[in-house]
Write a structure and sequence with these properties.
Chain lengths: ~120, ~110
């Protein structure tokens, strides 16, 4: 079954860290670039980061640059998002998504998301 | 404030046609492919259109996409009550270091 399953969300205090994981199955993970997209409660989609299939190219939204790190382990079919110095405005459901025909497009395979709440 | 501008809401009657616009600039829509997503309440977004006008397998031809200059449009014909959802356009922005961008979303009401 082709799917993406996120985990690692939860409640965290401002300034602390959290690592999200995205487990891929049913397709050749190592051949696809992967994105993180988030959605704050009641708000629209916000792109977060993308990582190329071999991990050599990565891009970040300005709002998370320097605080978040996207990485992957192709041997474990898993994508990660290390989130440091978390802020209240980082509160959102975080989705991982497979890229489309190029690294720059978010494709049709999305995970259901994991909720991150930053609050004291 | 989103980089891509969409109308907050549109509405139409069942069976009718509706279009949703997405306006950007030369650094995003003008030089990159546009995708469209449908999001039903409580669910993950679903890809409707990619590469401006291509439909993934399983997406009915009631959904269409087009692009002209720095704007893109999603069209939906034969509206059904099940089409009530939020719709988002998305693309890449090639300015500065490059980043993905989405529109603010459009709520479609079928009345």
């Amino acid at each position: 079954q082709v799917q993406l399953v996120e985990s690692g969300g939860g409640v965290v205090q401002p300034g602390r860290s959290l690592r999200l994981s995205c487990a891929a199955s049913g397709f050749t993970f190592s051949t696809y670039a992967m994105h993180w997209v988030r959605q704050a409660p009641g708000k629209g989609l916000q792109w977060v980061a993308v990582l190329s299939s071999d991990g050599s190219n990565k891009y970040y939204a300005d709002s998370v640059k320097g605080r978040f790190t996207i990485s992957r382990d192709n041997s474990k079919n898993t994508l990660y998002l290390q989130m440091n110095s978390l802020r209240a405005e980082d509160t959102a459901v975080y989705h991982c998504a497979r890229a489309s025909s190029s690294i720059f497009g978010v494709g049709k395979l999305w995970g259901q998301g994991t909720l991150v709440t930053v609050s004291s | 404030q989103s980089v891509l501008t969409q109308p907050p809401s549109v509405s139409a009657a069942p069976g009718q046609k509706v279009t949703i616009s997405c306006s950007g600039s030369s650094s995003n829509i003008g030089n990159n492919y546009v995708s469209w997503y449908q999001q039903l309440p409580g669910t993950a977004p679903k890809l409707l259109i990619y590469d401006n006008n291509k439909r993934p397998s399983g997406i009915p031809d009631r959904f269409s996409g087009s692009k002209s200059g720095t704007s893109a449009t999603l069209g939906i014909t034969g509206l059904q009550t099940g089409d009530e959802a939020d719709y988002y356009c998305g693309t890449w922005d090639s300015s500065l270091s490059g980043e993905g961008v989405f529109g603010g979303g459009t709520k479609l009401t079928v009345v």
